[in-house]
Amino acid sequence: MNAPFNRRLFLKRSALIAGALPVVGSGTGPNLLAAENRADPLRCVQIGCGGRGMYHLSAVLEANKQRLVAIVDVFEPRFPVVKKWLQDKGHNPDQVQTFTDYRRMFDRLHGQFDAVFIATPNHQHALPAMIAMQLGKGVFCEKPVCHSIGEARTLRSMAEQVKTPTQMGNQGHAEEGYRRLCEYIWSGAIGQIRETHSWTNRANGGVGPRPPVEPVPAGMHWDAWIGPAPYRDYHSDLHPHEWHGWYDFGNGSIGNMGCHVLDGVFWALKVEHPDAIEVEQLRGGSNERYPTGSRIRWDIPARSGMPPLKVYWYEGLNATTTAEPQGGLRAAVGDARNLPELLIELREQYPDDELDKSDSGTLYVGDKGIIYTATYGNRLHLVPMERMNEVPAPPKMLPRPKNVVTDFIEACLHGRKDTAVGFDYGTRLTEFAILGNLAQHAGGRQKVEWDGPNMRVKNLPGLNAWIQREYREGWRI
User: Fold this and answer.
1) pLDDT digits (tens, 9 = 90+) for 90-127
2) Please, are residues 283 and 330 in contact by the beta-carbon 8 Å criterion?
3) Exposed, middle or buried: residue 420 (CB in 10 Å: 0-12, 13-18, 19+)?
4) Where are the beta strands (DSSP E) in 218-359?
5) What is the pLDDT of residue 180?
6) Residue 120 and residue 457: Cα distance in Å, rounded?
7) Containing structural domain, residue 264
8) Cα(190)–Cα(373) distance, integer angstroms
9) Which residues contact 298 (CB under 8 A, 6 or more apart)?
10) Is the N end or the C end of the chain the one with fewer CB atoms within 10 Å?
11) Which residues on adjacent β-strands are paired with residue 315?
């Protein structure tokens, strides 16, 4: 059993470390990573060893040949699984330390590693990322990069002040599709775009009360799993994946898929702050669970030579069926057009366009045509596909980085702060996406008037409580 965590001792040690590292306000401090002998591999720590955590380990150790120093997971049965994987891949698991609380890991190993990879539930993203940046470590964090809008602003401010690289795990942003999308849109291939439609068939929500309290599973460090969130007793429908659907821990379907599917919209159309967000349709949900289906609209003002834009998001829908999938998506008010109907119309008109081959995607509707992209910007084409031969291909204006993990590792190794999806961009995209959560909290047909520069809701002040949560003692960011 681990000794109780001593927050005061940790902060004292962190303060001592801060005197030698490029942390907040230092500006001119040395780059810790650049100062290392970069003939040596990057020393890495993995926080969260489930599905995405194992992807990180494979990319770090197998594809990029770096070194693993420690793993952190609140569920001890993950440790033998990871160590067996390491052994099967020819690595020595005895050289990898294990922790069930990342705060203890930072306290004990702060001088023994260079970068952290974070693959925890969303509510546990911001604190380890902040601690790592304060200690001068590179930070790779899965999407969304945090749980709340307030955390996004805090992380962005910190990332601007430190000299080490950051990266949000948003693989599509580093791939060809969204970069080509930007080039097509910026070249005027489909003219001015006044609306986009993005969808996912994910339904990360629920209905009804919490399930009954159950005994904590053997090897589960439940208090560490809860972390900064409000404490609750253990129950089913949380670990290892269902936490997405609960307000306290996840961000619903938007948090699960929004940073992927809305990335092209946010980037190519140069979105900044919306004027308003509104839920137009809603199904399911409760006072602590996200809905199982909704349609959300962001109203974007004119910017950078682009006209006002309406961004639509449809979640929990089956894009290959009619507008009323099994279980139904009830309109909160009205009978506005449903995206699957539009998608079915295009599919029937252009059956060879492969518009139904992905469970998520986006249609960019311009006054000269339509562009389609799948989940990560892949399968990009004008609709119908024959138009790709009619519209001149624009020149390649954007750099083509390697995949997000390799790009981050190379930035760490070579003392380069800029990355494909650094926190300067990743926090802004995250904030834009989870503004949809604010609209879901407001309910159907309640327009949320947003003051982006001042980070507040203008017309429904009660919603401002969702912008920044209160943290439990010992877990404050």
Assistant:
1) 999 999 999 999 999 999 999 999 999 999 999 999 99
2) yes
3) buried
4) 276-283, 293-300, 309-315
5) 98
6) 29
7) 175-394+432-466
8) 14
9) 271, 274, 276, 277, 310, 311, 313, 432, 435, 436
10) N
11) 200, 294
Shared-domain flag, residues 334 and 409: no
Query: Considering the domain boundaries, does residue 361 fall inside one?
Result: yes
- Residue written as tokens 């996912």? 200
Quote the pTM value: 0.90
Q: Which amino acid is at 250?
A: G
* Token duo for residue 149: 């809008």
Burial class, 379, CB count within 10 angstroms (exposed 0-12 / middle 13-18 / buried 19+): middle
**398-448 per-position pLDDT tens digit:** 999 999 999 999 999 999 999 999 999 999 999 999 999 999 999 989 999
Residue with token string 């992807």: 55
Determine the Cα–Cα distance for residues 146 and 373; give it in Å rounded to an integer. 25
Q: What is the pLDDT of residues 300-347, one digit of tens each?
A: 999 989 999 999 999 986 433 333 333 333 333 233 344 557 777 888
1 part of a folded domain: no
The total of structural domains in the chain comes to 2
**Calpha distance 428→245 (Å, rounded):** 22
Token pair, residue 30, equals: 């040395």
User: Same structural domain for residues 83 and 162?
Assistant: yes
Q: What is the pLDDT of residue 21?
A: 38
Q: At what angle do helices 126-134 and 7-18 cross, to 10 degrees?
A: 40
User: Token pair 């190794």 is at which residue?
Assistant: 413
Which pair of structure tokens corresponds to residue 398? 């954007």
